[in-house]
Amino acid sequence: QTLPLCAAPACAHDSDACTAWLPYNGSGTSLMMAGDVLVLVTPGQGTQYEQLGALCLPGIQVCAPDGSDRRLLVRFEANQTLRPPYLTDGSCLYATLQTDTAQELTRQLLCIDLASGKTSTLMELDSDHAEGVLGAGGEYIFSSQLSDASQQAKLNLDYSTELYRFNVNTGSRELVAVCPIDSCRRALFGKTLVTYDGTCGRLSVFDCVENRQTAVADSPLPIGPDADLPDLIFYDEPFLLIGYRQHPEDLARRFAVVDVSTGQSREFSLCYSVGEHLLPCYPIAKTGDGRYFLVMGESEAPPAQTGDGYIWAGSYQYGIMDRADYWAGTP
Questions:
Q1: pLDDT digits over 5-57, tens only?
Q2: Other Cβ atoms closer than 10 A to 69
Q3: Closest-CA residue to 179 (of 163, 165, 191)
Q4: Which residues, 6+ apart, have CB-to-CB distance to 82 below 8 Å?
Q5: Which residues of 172-182 are buried (b: 16+ CB within 10 A; e: fewer)?
Q6: Which of 135, 180, 242, 268 is the most buried (most CB within 10 A)?
Q7: H-type alpha helices, the chain
Q8: Please, which residues have CB within 8 angstroms of residue 283's CB and are 6 or more apart in sequence?
Q9: Is the pTM of this model over 0.90?
């Protein structure tokens, strides 16, 4: 059952009088809970300022869990964008503010107090090397950047991605890992970095908070020697969900579960179809009792026209599943 997040009884949910109403702003709205406060982040689309006015500006609103008492906490300029991921420790929101001027593009890691709206800059990100925030764990925020951002290096795939951790309490920044772009696939899940080295077929798991390797599995993936690097989709110790093509010419992806502690793999069959594409059901959160809240399907619908453009009008189907059933592939 889907219910509008509205605090008003007998509301028609069709105007801005409804507490669940989100007017078109050109960039959408991201939602998250921070303690007992619902946070609404507008990334920003300043190019539509003439049509939409202040609605298109990047900003943050907060409200009660039922949608009531919504208020604007902070708003930024038309030449700025709030870039995901949006991270919270319950009292503050951490996000990247990108500023575009005629002379340069800059990115700053911000800390925004969700009670007062007070905003402070924690770190200047290295825009020249395409540094971007990946996630957080413990007292650290993790970012990655290119070792060499020159056009020649990009053409030759002659560079690596460097993973850093930034301590929000001390302001220190440390290099955690280096991954060659042409032979290595990496993904960050919370505080855990998972890498796949295509030159030797090795999976490695690294705890970025404790700064130590926790698992290694050699040649665990069911892929051919000439296959493209696999997609690392979801990890929950010791299981890793991957997407892969058996051979480079294959059009359809397959999915498998790898037990990184043993190196054993098996087919993953909890999937759904969108058009001609097969996608895996994947967790997006855990419930209080440790079960998975997951995406289990998508419904397609014609794009809806809004203002001068169109927006996706489909919807997702969600479900809850025990962790053991999910990894066993038992619906």
A1: 887 888 888 887 888 888 888 899 999 999 899 999 999 998 888 888 999 99
A2: 12
A3: 163
A4: 41, 42, 43, 44, 58, 59, 60, 76, 95, 96, 97, 98
A5: eeeebbebebe
A6: 242
A7: 49-52, 151-156, 323-328
A8: 234, 236, 292, 293, 294, 326
A9: no
